[in-house]
Design brief:
Strand content: 15-25%
Structural class: alpha+beta
Mean pLDDT: 93
Low-confidence stretches: none
Strand order of the largest sheet: 1-2
Distance between the termini: 20 Å
Largest sheet: 2 strands, parallel
Number of strands: 4
Order of helices and strands: EHHEEEH
């Protein structure tokens, strides 16, 4: 399983992503699977959900286009809000 965080204007196809990641096919996660592995509902997925991936079953990828921004905006495990985080702080969070 993979979690991709992309710039909002990034255009991709699931077939292209599957090929790039060496997957047979690629699709969006079911609500049950999202809850089981990342502890979130559809629409609320963000890098913060990796906190709930206790067995490290989800591989994370971030769009290089985001790394050029000092601030990133993501959902805090709930899509009713958005928070900002410094790029360096997000990278530190992910490394830990």
């Amino acid at each position: 399983m993979w979690l991709l965080t992309l710039h909002e204007s990034r255009k991709i196809t699931l077939d292209d992503v599957a090929q790039a990641l060496g997957a047979r096919r690629f699709s969006f996660c079911s609500p049950d699977r999202l809850m089981r592995y990342l502890g979130v509902l559809p629409g609320s997925v963000s890098p913060f959900a990796l906190l709930n991936d206790r067995d490290s079953e989800v591989q994370f990828y971030i769009d290089e286009g985001l790394l050029g921004h000092d601030l990133l905006f993501v959902h805090p495990l709930d899509n009713s809000a958005t928070v900002s985080i410094a790029r360096s702080d997000l990278i530190g969070f992910l490394e830990n």
